[in-house]
Each structure stands twice: as structure tokens, then as C-alpha cells.
């Protein structure tokens, strides 16, 4: 199964120095690396944008841009945006606050049969309402 990787994981893997990572974060990065090696890691344009935003210098931006250029974006279409809006409404009707990017990640993953790899605890709330598959790493919680 392909895995839609959220910015939280990409950031750990590509924006943080390995010596700064705790043991849980190292397990997450190792799992990300395995997903990349096996060709199962996926990204969407909004996650790419989020990952590239807030870089400290133009050189850091360009370095990260080149590092992630090898990952092609999953194409997002009108139906994905509509499904994201519907998912957001369903969560809000249940009292769960959402963000548009999170709902787009949920919609793309659901429509393509992917799991979601993230450290963002909001996705556990979304999964209570939406039929999401969250990618887990044993011992990483």
C-alpha cells in the first residue's frame, strides 16, 4: 500500500539534523526511509509547499527543493477538493476542528486507498469520523 506522507514526517527526515532526533523520531525517519526505498512514499503539492515554507535562507530553500524534486506530486483534482470539503464538514458536524490541508490529505488518501503517515494527533480525531488508514510504526508512539 502506498503511503501519503504528511509534512511532519518529511520535516523530520529532511529539515532536522539526525543528531537532534530522539529515539522515537529516529524510528519515524527510518520508516520514512524504508517507504522511500520501497517506492511507496507519496506527496501532494500542498504538503510540498508546506515543507518548503519558512526556510531560513534561500540556500536552505533551494537545497530542500532539490532534495524533494525527485518525488512527483500525486495529482489533485476537483473531486479531491470536493471530497476534502465534504470530509471537513463531516468532522465539523461532529465537533472536530479541521484545516483545509489536512482534509485534502484525508481525501487524497481515501480516494486512492493510501494510508497517512503523520505525527499530527489531529488525524486520530479525523479517523474517528472518516474511514482513514493511519500508517503506524511499532514502538514509535
Description:
This protein is of the alpha/beta class and 141 residues long. It has a single domain, classed as Rossmann fold (3-Layer(aba) Sandwich), CATH 3.40.50.1010. 55% of the residues lie in helices and 9% in strands. It is built from seven helices and four strands. It has helices at 7-14, 23-37, 45-52, 58-68, 78-93, 100-112, 122-127, and strands at 3-5, 41-44, 73-74, 115-117. Strands 3-2-1-4 form a four-stranded parallel beta sheet.
List descriptors.
globular; 141 residues; alpha/beta; four-stranded parallel beta sheet; 4 strands; Rossmann fold
Helix-strand layout with pairing:
Elements: E1 3-5, H1 7-14, H2 23-37, E2 41-44, H3 45-52, H4 58-68, E3 73-74, H5 78-93, H6 100-112, E4 115-117, H7 122-127
Parallel strand pairs: 1-2, 1-4, 2-3
Poorly predicted ranges (pLDDT <50, ≥5 residues)?
none
* Cα-atom radius of gyration: 15 Å
User: How far do the termini sit from each other?
Assistant: 21 Å
Q: Sketch the major β-sheet.
A: 4 strands, parallel
Number of domains: 1
So, the CATH homologous superfamily? 5'-nuclease
Strand content: 5-15%
The shape is globular
Q: In the CATH scheme, what's the topology name?
A: Rossmann fold
Amino acid at each position: 500500500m502506498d503511503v501519503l506522507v504528511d509534512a511532519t514526517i518529511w520535516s523530520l527526515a529532511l529539515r532536522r539534523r539526525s543528531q537532534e532526533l530522539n529515539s522515537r523520531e529516529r524510528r519515524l525517519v527510518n520508516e520514512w526511509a524504508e517507504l522511500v526505498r520501497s517506492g511507496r512514499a507519496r506527496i501532494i503539492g500542498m504538503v510540498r509547499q508546506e515543507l518548503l515554507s519558512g526556510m531560513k535562507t534561500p540556500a536552505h530553500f533551494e537545497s530542500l527543493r532539490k532534495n524533494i524534486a525527485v518525488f512527483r506530486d500525486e495529482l489533485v483534482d476537483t473531486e479531491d477538493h470536493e471530497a476534502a470539503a465534504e470530509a471537513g464538514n463531516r468532522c465539523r458536524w461532529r465537533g472536530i476542528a479541521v484545516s483545509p490541508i489536512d482534509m485534502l490529505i484525508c481525501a487524497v488518501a481515501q480516494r486512492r486507498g493510501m494510508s497517512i503517515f503523520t505525527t499530527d494527533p489531529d488525524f486520530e480525531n479525523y479517523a474517528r469520523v472518516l474511514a482513514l488508514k493511519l500508517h503506524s510504526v511499532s514502538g514509535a508512539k
